[in-house]
Design a protein that fits this description.
By secondary structure, the chain is an alpha/beta fold. The chain has 15 helices and 18 strands. The strands form 4 sheets. Strands 11-10-9-5-2-1-13-12 form an 8-stranded parallel beta sheet. It has a 5-stranded antiparallel beta sheet with strand order 14-15-16-18-17, covered by helices on one side. It has a 3-stranded antiparallel beta sheet with strand order 6-8-7, with no helix packed on it. The radius of gyration is 23 Å and the shape is globular. The chain starts with 20 loop residues before the first strand and ends with a strand. Belongs to the glycosyl hydrolase 13 family.
Length: 538
């Protein structure tokens, strides 16, 4: 059976996940332990003391499984094998155990919508031919047109480009992402059985939870109808069949005390909340907050809406500013358009990094003060900006499938800087990392920031220490307080208040006895400057 999980941290209930601070690791870019230019599990193990000092409760790993890396590891060839670029299964087990000894839980990623075209199932389906049992595990169909030369339907891709690829025998297979990621047929019992066994495999190895990629996509209308905007139910998003799948998963998680977090992008708050019913997923990512502009009215609305949609099912909210798909916070908040939308990503967007950094510091205190759990993407605690990747070094398929108009997601995936005076900022050895680090990257190095009391790293460390120690932070109630326009002021307990000034001029602070932590200095009159946040004791 699975090894016991770390004990409860101060200020948290036995349901640790309700108020946890969770750190996202993108393994290729976190730390390189063997010096080959690619991050790996040995590198993560070497940096576990750093994560313990940072003060996180868990690590979420993006896929570390065997993969051709057509989509950054989200094209999985074998869930029971660690990709050799990262290490092996024994190393993963050591990492889980060593993290647990430091009080840090592990969350792994599962991608139920599709597998790699190098997965044994898909290779067998190609070899078996039309009408075979092997092809029924996927969505193979004859084409339309006189000679089957047209795809079976016109469903749009989650990336740019086609959603169907034709194979040599004339049939087509469905892939909502890249052609290297064929969609699974979740109406087939073998698909469900395999994923349930994969969940047990990782829970048995001591993981505390599972993040579910594209959680609203796996179920498809079996008739594969033409796409009609606004059709209800949607042919492949948020179909009712999914809920029984996740109920069966929940029963497995409950056997091991495991938890789920779903990647659920849905505009309908009522339908979103269905995934968080007590017998389904424990939590789901909050994308309305992540994509919200730096605007007091809209941020308050995003917070209120998030808390309201979670309340009926008793689930905690999750808060995140950035992840491996999203423009880094420092860069996004330094632009004229401070929101995020995949459709608006473009090259050569003017950015004021000084302004973005000031706002990102304030946003960190805002996010860490909100009720529920919080996710911190690697490098956000260092204040890393989005990097501009030379076009001949880009690897992200979003760039290529857009015809080169989308800069892709590699800019937020650049290998981390650890040591300012080491080659390639201490990411590994003298071997150039798999993605190039921009000029000046060493200025953000963790060792340099550790010695600077005013650094972004030390701001995060202080905030996470207070969050872990104070029962008022994490899961619990929030009460808004009266404040000026452009300001967010809320209380988390009778004596703990968070104030965030998004207005253009300084504002007076409410009555308080102590400034616990501020994202920047107060002015000479003790007022809170623009784009600054503070935690107060009253």
């Amino acid at each position: 059976m699975a090894a016991p999980q770390p004990g409860t941290t101060p200020g948290h209930t036995d349901d640790w996940w309700r108020g946890a601070a969770i750190y996202q690791v993108y393994p290729r870019s976190f730390a390189d332990g063997d010096g080959d230019g690619t991050g790996d599990l040995a590198g993560v193990r070497s940096r576990l003391p750093y994560l313990a000092e940072l003060g996180v409760d868990a690590i979420w790993f993006t896929p570390w499984y065997l993969s051709p890396l057509a989509d950054g590891g989200y094209d999985v060839a074998d869930y029971r094998t660690i990709d050799p670029a990262f290490g092996d299964l024994a190393e993963a087990e050591r990492l889980i155990a060593e993290a647990r000894d430091l009080g840090i839980r592990t969350i792994v990623d599962i991608v139920p919508n599709h597998v790699s075209d190098q997965h044994a199932w898909f290779k067998a389906a190609l070899a078996a031919g039309p009408g075979s049992p092997e092809r029924k595990l996927f969505h193979f169909r004859p084409g339309r047109g006189e000679h089957g030369e047209l795809p079976p339907n016109d469903w749009p891709s989650q990336f740019s480009g086609q959603t169907w690829t034709r194979v040599e025998d004339g049939e087509w297979y469905l892939h909502l992402f890249t052609p290297q990621q064929p969609d699974l047929n979740w109406a087939h019992p073998a698909v469900r059985e395999e994923h349930e066994e994969v969940l047990r495999f990782w829970f048995e190895r001591g993981v505390a939870g599972v993040r579910i990629d594209s959680a609203a996509l796996p179920a498809k209308d079996p008739d594969l109808p033409e796409f009609v905007e606004g059709r209800d139910p949607h042919p492949y998003i948020d179909r009712d069949d999914l809920h029984e799948i996740y109920r069966s998963w929940r029963r497995i998680a409950d056997e091991y005390g495991g938890v789920f977090v779903g990647e659920v992008w849905l505009p309908d708050s009522e339908r979103f909340a269905r995934y968080l019913r007590p017998d389904e997923l424990h939590t789901a990512f909050n994308f309305s907050f992540l994509s919200c502009p730096w605007d007091a009215v809209r941020l308050r609305a995003a917070i209120d809406d998030t808390l309201a949609e979670h309340a009926p099912v008793g689930a905690p909210a999750t808060w995140v500013l950035c992840n491996h798909d999203v423009t880094r916070t420092v860069t996004r908040y330094g632009r004229q358009d401070t929101g995020f939308d995949f459709a608006t990503k473009t090259y050569d967007t003017p950015t004021d990094l000084e302004l973005g950094t000031r706002r990102a510091r304030a946003a960190a205190l805002l996010t860490l003060a909100l009720p529920g759990s919080v996710y911190v993407y690697q490098g956000e605690e260092l204040g890393l900006p989005e990097a501009e990747i030379p076009r001949d070094r880009i690897q992200d398929p979003m760039h290529f499938r857009s015809g080169g108009t989308d800069p892709g997601r590699d800019g937020c995936r650049v290998p981390l800087p650890w040591k300012a005076d080491a080659p390639y900022a201490g990411f590994g050895s003298a071997v150039e990392p798999w993605l190039p680090q921009p000029e000046g990257w060493a200025a953000y190095a963790a060792d340099r920031q550790a010695d600077d009391p005013d650094s972004m790293l030390n701001l995060y460390r202080a905030a996470l220490e207070l969050r872990r120690a104070d029962p008022a932070l994490g899961d619990g109630p929030l009460r808004w307080l009266p404040c000026a326009d452009g300001v967010l002021t809320f209380r988390r307990s009778p004596d703990l208040t968070c104030v965030v000034n998004l207005a253009d001029s300084p504002v007076a602070l409410p009555d308080h006895t102590e400034v616990l932590l501020a994202s920047g200095s107060l002015d000479a009159d003790g007022r809170l400057p623009s784009d600054t946040a503070v935690w107060l004791r009253s």
